[in-house]
Structure formats: C-alpha cells, structure tokens
Design a protein that fits this description.
InterPro entries: Ser/Thr_deHydtase_PyrdxlP-BS, TrpB-like_PALP, TrpB-like_PALP_sf. With about 325 residues, the chain is of the alpha/beta class. The protein has 13 helices and ten strands.
Amino acid sequence: MSSRETVDFIYEAHERIKPFVHKTPVYTNTTFNNLIGKEAFFKCENLQKTGSFKARGALNTVAYSSGNHGLATAWASRLAGVKCSVVVPKTTSEFKVTAVQGYGAEVVKCEYDPISRLEACETIATKEGYEIIHTSDHDDVIHGQGTIALELLQEVPDLDAILVSASGGGMISGIAIAAKAINKNIKIFMVEPKGKMAEESLRSGKRLWPNPPQFIDTIAEGLMSQQLGNLTFPIICRLVEKEVFTVGNEDIINGMVFSFRYMKMVIEAAAGATVAAAMSEKLKQMDPGIKKIGVILCGGNIDILKLPWYSSTY
C-alpha cells in the first residue's frame, strides 16, 4: 500500500483522537541552533497526555510495554470505561508502574525478555477475553502515532528532515507515512541506542537480528527492544533513510542534560536520544541542504529522583 493511500487512515485517526489529546507545541532554541548550525524544531510529545506520544496510538485491552504504552493504554481504557491489564518487565521503574495503576489498570510483572512478556500477555488475554494491543506493531497504533507528523508539518511545512527514535518502530512508521505523503522529498532518520543494529537490516531489506528476540542494554527503557516489528519493518525499509543515528548512554545523557539545562524541558532518555542525534557530528557532516530538522521529543516520563547523570559529573 502506498503512503498516499495509507495517510488517509492517519487523517481519520487525527479526527478521532484530537478531542482527547493535546496538540503539542513545537519549540525552537537559539542556543541549540547555534550549536548544531541548523534550525531544529522540537515536537514536544513529552507534554502529551500521559507524558508521551503513546497516547495517540492507544486511543485509536491488554498491553505490553516498558511503561509508556501501558500508561497510555490504561488512560485510554479509563476514558472508554473498559478494563485494562498491562504487562511490564520487572525492571520497569516504579514511577511508571504507579502511574499505570493510577489510571485503574492491573499491572502484571514478567521476566526481562520479550518472550516472557508476550507469554504473560497471551495468558491474561486468553483468561479474560482481552485484545492484545501491541506497543508498536499494530495498524491503529501506527496511524495514531503518525498524527505527530501532520501537526509538525502543519506548523513547519518546509522541514528537510525529521529525527525519530525507534524501538518497535510504530512511531517512525506512522511519521514516515504521513510526512512522505505530504512532502516526498523530506528525509526521515531513525535514531537508535547502541546494540539495536538496525542499519544493517535496513540496508539489506532483511531481518538480520538474532533470535529469539531480546532487549538491549540501554538507559532508554523506551527503546530497549532490539528488533523492529514485523509490520513496521517493511514500512521503514521503504520510507526511512538507510543511514541510522546510533547513540550511546553518554550521548543520551548529554541530550537530556541540554534539554533540562537550556530548554527547561523534562524529557526521558528515549527523547534524549533524538536530541543527541541532532547534536552529533554525523548530522553536521551530512548533506548541507538539510537545514531545517524536526526533532521528536517522544516522552517525559522519568523519575526525577533517579536521573541517569546523578553518578556522572555535570
């Protein structure tokens, strides 16, 4: 299906969800622009309902999640008046677990690996008769998250590129579908934590990750899934640039610190990854025609008592 055909579903999703979600602001920062030598436009999904972009997909239930998707699904389920169970790894921060429970959802903890998470989810779904809502590999989730691009390009229609962090790939798939339908020349770049190894798979068009699926070691718990989804992978191969921005923990911390210190924005590590990519030498050395970039700040759900740089010197 072409991006033009599919974008209609994203416009429809936008009409459905806009009474319930924020049209998040797009901010700029002169200090940041001077630092990177380009104009950056930050789409602030950290200010979204439930603290992340996940609210857009959850509205459009059993969910499994590192936190943000579960939080958004719990919120959406409360709006709809239906029961919700959320399966999370045992390592998920208590900050997010408490927030999910605050929306009335049941929280079930599982071992720290994708197979255990899925098995726990399927057990509950079978027992209770629930539907499993995948955190990213689901058409309605992709279409809901694609509404980010509609709003961003409405405000800044002449963007040259957009930086998007990816775990399962739902957000970047939706953004790529919408953005490419609006402007076929815009470039969509994936941002990943070290260990994801997406670029080799994107360049080959084949899923080269080891099986069974595993989580990667990163401070960005929202980006810990190594593999892109079965539904999202072909979309990303078709619409997203093959050159991937890979950032380490220290890079992510630098991005977060800049946001806290100079932009006065509370962001989580998954959003810090895109800030880090925008600050990277790699971006500076790219096509000089890339002058205006969108930077997706995907979430702000972080325990401020456990900030990752407390053990570093800043």
